[in-house]
Amino acid sequence: MNIHVLALSVHTVIHVMVCISYKFVKLTPATYLCYNKKRNQHFCMVPHSDFVFRGSIVSSYIDVAHPERHAPYLDIPDDVIEYLHYLDFVKLRSPRTVNGYYLDLRGFFRFMMQRWQRVADTTPPDEITLTGITTADIAQITKRDIFDYLDHARNADNGPKARARKLSSLRGFFHYMCTQVNKLATNPTENISLGTPQKALPKYLTETEAVTLLSHIQSDFYTRDYCIITLFLNCGMRLAELVTINMGDFRDDTIRITGKGNKERLVYLNNACLDALQRYRKDRASLPNLVDKDALFISNRTGKRLSARRVEQIVARCLQSAGLSGRGFSPHKLRHTAATLMYQGGVDMLALKEILGHENVSTTQIYTHINREQLKRAVAASPLASQKYVEEKPSSPAADSEDEDAPDSTDSR
User: Fold this and answer.
1) What is the pLDDT of residues 44-96, one digit of tens each?
2) DSSP string across 55-92
């Protein structure tokens, strides 16, 4: 057997064996077998053409209904692929997190291809091929390249948070290359800091606006859309959490929510949520074309689970009918609304952290800055708040003379 073919075969076998531990198996250049590691349910065979978008290969796939699934990443350098594998099966990062690293690193290496003058500056990003970038190429990257890329990101209208995230992705990759696999001698991102991005106060609806929104639901599936808005406003769940809710996630007056990093939490349902759920479930059960029997929120047209994009459209339409469109509100702003109203209602910060599924209470503390009524009461509670204005008293001639220049009594004699 040809030595080259033998080496290639061994490499392929090893690659397949290792990929089994990830969440996808690379079989051939055209076909992939992806599976749900958590439930041991297999994806169907996915042809390579299914990942073609706008004339280019999009080798990332995050199914919002099954966020623990994703397909291989094939349009990036081998070292980056191995790093994403490391994040996946060693660091146990969620597919969404891995996909975020993929997008950031892909953007950086597209910039580097133009910087290395391997493609024309006018080449569309989607047409830049990255698979030929080697470890030797990556070893040539300097701190100046990182600075210039961050400046390029700023000129491309990336805000401080976006640039900080891109730098974090680069830090992680180069740290891995230097310390985990020892492929690089120096880390070009070392000691680079952009500072802490300023935290903006979240947008939210007032209580009156939230009631107005619930009173103006216009939909061809009213009970479903009313239930969606109600859960957003009362439970503070994320969009990705809402669309992944299954019928079996409920028990009595609680719901099991799967959040970031596949972390589960229990959230209690109030009477408004329970009533909306009961009404929607009744209409859901009468649908003649129910396909995704496990999914809570489904399309009345296809009988399949609602996508995140469809829920965004539903929320946008409800906001428009309530006269609240054009103000930057979205499903995530409804989450901010729920958190703000709960905090204003006296919910403890640690309890709010658990409800929202935050990793650290520091993330939740942003809502302490938007309780305007509490700030108003705090200022009003000052013992000097009721002090009346003191009119100026007529001054005596002797007092007026004190304003004139006089010898300093401390002068030495």
Assistant:
1) 333 333 333 333 333 344 554 454 555 567 889 999 999 999 998 898 887 87
2) TEE------TTSTT------SS-HHHHHHHHHHHHTS-
Summarize the chain as % helix, strand, coil (round to 5). Answer: 50, 10, 45
How many whole angstroms separate alpha carbon 25 and alpha carbon 31?
9
| Inter-residue contact 236 to 338 (CB < 8 Å) | yes
Sheet holding 254-258, edge to edge: 250-251, 254-258, 264-268
Each residue's pLDDT tens digit, 192-239: 888 766 666 778 888 999 999 999 998 999 999 999 999 999 998 999
Residues forming the active site: 238, 260, 332, 335, 358, 367
Query: Measuring CA to CA, which residue among 281, 277, 282, 252 is closest to residue 266?
Result: 252
For residue 360, give the amino acid letter: N
pTM above 0.70, yes or no: no
How many angstroms separate the CA atoms of 318 and 312, rounded? 10
